[in-house]
Amino acid sequence: MEARQVAAVKAVRARRDGPRVAALLDRLAAEAQDPAVNLMPTTIELVKARATLGEIVARLRDVFGRYVERPVF
Questions:
Q1: Using N-to-C axis directions, what is the helix angle for 18-32 and 53-64, rounded to 10°?
Q2: What is the pTM of this model?
Q3: Does residue 46 sit within a domain?
Q4: 6-10, 20-24, 27-31 — which is least confidently predicted?
């Protein structure tokens, strides 16, 4: 199952417009710097351009960091 998923993602990446996805990811990161900007339009464009969820989340993680829950006892 894992091998099929990896192959499917590689196939999607091979067929998509790589430079467009890269430009949209850069735009998403730039827009994420401004808290007043709605990120959904760019995110929707990224999905339509066949960016993976992992690519989108990784770029947002670069901007916002990773949430770490702090337990309170």
A1: 30
A2: 0.84
A3: yes
A4: 6-10
